[in-house]
Amino acid sequence: MANLILKPGREKSVLHRHPWIFSSAVLRMEGDPEEGETLCVMDSHNKALGWAAFSPHSQIRARMWSWNPDESIDQEFLKRRLATAIALRRAVIPAQETDALRLVHAESDGLPGIIVDRYADTLVLQLLTAGAERWREDLANLLIELTGLAQIYERSDVDVRRLEGLPERVGPLRGEIPHERVMVQENDLKFWVDVIRGHKTGFYLDQRPNRQRLRLLAYGRTVLNCFSYTGAFAAFALAGGASSVLSVDSSTEALKLGIENVAVNGFPAERAEWMEGDVFQVLRSFRDERRSFDLIILDPPKFAPTIAQAEKAARGYKDINLLAFKLLRPGGLLFTFSCSGGISMELFQKIVAGAALDAGVEARIVERLGQGPDHPVALNFPEGQYLKGLICAI
Ligand code: SAH
């Protein structure tokens, strides 16, 4: 068993139960651990503080599995953590609400690097770190055992794996994947999810409660749905009685599925319009054409994965929010989101305030939004709160 010895004073964050140990906090290593191996974490006086997974290639050199030096990190440990995560979802999300939800949310469930999403009878596993990778087979077996499902598809194809020195890996991990598309149900609506080629693991599960809010506020409104992906917001706006929804996205594949998602729910095709394009340009041309809408949704991709990119990202957010404010009719609503880890709610609000000021509109926040309860935020890991949203009224 290898040991990771922390520099004097750098044990503080471990004692506060933050799961990340940065390379700059490491005094020395004892032993020659392999990638992903479990390390005993010690303070500079060699007092054991807990167990962590080793990531030799990442700035985050180790991630804590447990702060209990007496606990073994083994299959039983993983089973306990997975079962706890699954039980939490059962407790906070009624089964009739959806069959598409995140069962395991990495650090926020005490399982760094491990994401498990459920889409009806299919599980999608995403492993982000060397530590998670090492337990791949055990995780697959345990997930089958704990959920009673037979199919696991792996979507370990995210950029962060490169920082860990891991190659991308996708494909069936357990069972067959009968169709590349899976039909899921969310409240009374249905959606096709492409778990093989879709973004993330196929669907933006984190927006579920915000889709419900949209549904309740969309009645009679003309809606502009920017960064629509496969039309989840579009379908909920139509379900809420929106008079029309125009969805804009740069991905042809996403728009195709969006059209099917509106059709499968029985909404008339003429109430939903789809436009392939760059939202930045589309918003500008709508401004020049003096078009206007009663409700605009801005749900862009991550502009700032880390704090280092925050400044450039801030310009992007300001740009689209400013244009959206200009396109809104008086009494209009803006649903605006940021899923960038590098942008805090406080900063996001400042950016949106700056956009309103420059657009010359008087706007007020009527509601703050975040990710759904299947994406919990561990209090010892505030970084887990990544999705921020505002509903602004002008
Ligand atoms: N609102 C969606 C999720 C949006 S994800 C939902 O709830 O399901 C971000 C989307 O933005 C992706 O579908 C991606 O294809 C699209 N995208 C990224 N950059 C874009 C751009 N500049 N213009 C238009 N769409 C863009």
The level of helicity is 25-40%
**How would a textbook summarize the main sheet?**
7 strands, mixed
Count of folded domains: 3
- Ions and ligands: S-adenosyl-L-homocysteine
Describe this structure in words.
With 394 residues, the chain is an alpha/beta fold. The protein has 3 domains: 3-66, Archaeosine Trna-guanine Transglycosylase, Chain: A, domain 4, CATH 2.30.130.10; 75-180, 2-Layer Sandwich (Transcription Regulator spoIIAA), CATH 3.30.750.80; 204-393, Vaccinia Virus protein VP39 (Rossmann fold, 3-Layer(aba) Sandwich), CATH 3.40.50. It is 30% helix and 30% strand. It is built from 11 helices and 20 strands. The protein has helices at 12-15, 75-92, 130-134, 136-147, 160-163, 208-217, 232-239, 252-264, 279-288, 310-327, 345-359, and strands at 2-6, 20-22, 26-30, 38-42, 48-54, 60-66, 100-105, 114-119, 122-127, 151-156, 169-174, 181-186, 189-194, 222-226, 244-249, 272-276, 293-298, 328-338, 364-370, 388-393. The strands form 4 sheets. It has a 7-stranded mixed β-sheet with strand order 16-15-14-17-18-20-19, sandwiched between helices. A 6-stranded mixed β-sheet has the order 2-6-5-4-1-3. The longest helix is centred in the first third of the chain and has 18 residues, at 75-92. The radius of gyration is 22 Å and the shape is globular. The chain starts with a strand and ends with a strand. The mean pLDDT is 97. S-adenosyl-L-homocysteine is lined by residues 199, 204, 207, 227-230, 232-233, 248-251, 254, 278-280, 299, 301.
